[in-house]
Design goal:
The protein is mainly α. The protein has 6 helices and no strands. The protein has 2 domains: about 50 residues; about 160 residues, de novo design (two linked rop proteins) (Up-down Bundle).
C-alpha cells in the first residue's frame, strides 16, 4: 500500500516536471514571434516613410522643372526681341541723326538686358538674377518708348517699309513675352506654394528646394506691350 502511494507521487511529480519543461519552449516561441512581428511592422513603417518622402521630392522636382521650362520660353522671345532692336535702331539712324544719344541709349539698354537675360537663363528663379533682369527690361522699355515718341515727329521714318515691318515684329514679340512671363509666374507660384506647405516643407529644406523669384514688373508702363503703331 505504501509502495503504491509513493509510486503515485513519483508519477505525479514526473508529470508536473514534464508540463513545466514543455511550457518553457512555448513561452520562448511566443516571445520570438512577437519580436518578429514588431520588427516587420517597424520595417514596413520605414518603407512607407521613405516612399512618402520620395513622392514629395519628385513632386517638387517636377514643379521646379516646370517653371524652368516656362522661363526657357521667355528666353526664346527675349532673344528675338534683342535681335530686332539693333535693326530697328539702324533703320532709324538715317532719319534721327540729331538724336544719337537716344539711339545709343537704346543699344546700351538692349545690351544690358541681353546680359541680364543670360544670367537669368542660366539659373531661372534665382532672386538676384530675376531682379536684375526686371530692372534691365524696365530700362529697355523706357528707352524704346522715348525712341518711338521721337519717331512720331518724322513722317518719312513712319512711312519707311522696313521700319514698319520691324515695328510689327517687335509688337508681336512683346505680346509673346507677356504671355510667356505670365506662364512662368504661374509655375513659380505653384512651386513656391508646394514647397511651403506641410509636409513638403519638411523635404524642401534638407534637399535645398529654395524659393523661386517671380519675373516682376518694376515700371507700370511695362504692364502693357510697347505701343509701336505709327498710325
Amino acid at each position: 500500500m505504501a509502495f503504491a502511494v509513493r509510486l503515485g507521487r513519483r508519477r505525479a511529480l514526473a508529470g508536473l516536471e514534464g508540463r513545466r519543461s514543455k511550457s518553457i519552449p512555448d513561452q520562448g516561441t511566443k516571445l520570438m514571434n512577437t519580436s518578429l512581428i514588431v520588427i516587420i511592422a517597424l520595417a514596413a513603417l520605414v518603407v512607407v516613410a521613405v516612399l512618402f518622402v520620395i513622392g514629395l521630392y519628385n513632386k517638387l522636382v517636377g514643379l521646379r522643372n516646370r517653371y524652368k521650362n516656362a522661363y526657357a520660353q521667355i528666353d526664346v522671345q527675349l532673344k528675338r526681341r534683342y535681335d530686332l532692336i539693333p535693326n530697328l535702331v539702324e533703320t532709324a539712324k538715317g532719319y534721327l541723326q540729331h538724336e544719337r544719344s537716344t539711339l545709343e541709349a537704346v543699344i546700351a539698354a538692349r545690351n544690358a538686358a541681353a546680359s541680364a537675360n543670360t544670367g537669368a537663363a542660366a539659373n531661372p528663379g534665382d532672386p538676384a538674377a530675376m531682379k536684375q533682369l526686371a530692372g534691365a527690361e524696365g530700362a529697355l522699355t523706357g528707352t524704346l518708348g522715348r525712341l518711338f515718341a521721337l519717331s512720331e515727329a518724322y513722317p518719312d521714318l513712319k512711312a519707311n517699309t522696313t521700319m514698319l515691318n520691324l515695328m510689327e515684329e517687335l509688337s508681336s514679340t512683346e505680346n509673346k513675352v507677356s504671355f510667356s512671363r505670365q506662364a512662368y509666374n504661374d509655375s513659380v507660384m505653384a512651386y513656391n506654394t508646394q514647397r511651403e506647405v506641410f509636409p513638403s516643407s519638411l523635404v524642401a529644406g534638407p534637399f535645398n528646394f529654395t524659393a523661386a523669384e517671380l519675373f516682376g514688373i518694376e515700371n507700370p508702363e511695362q504692364r502693357e506691350p510697347t505701343k509701336v503703331s505709327f498710325t
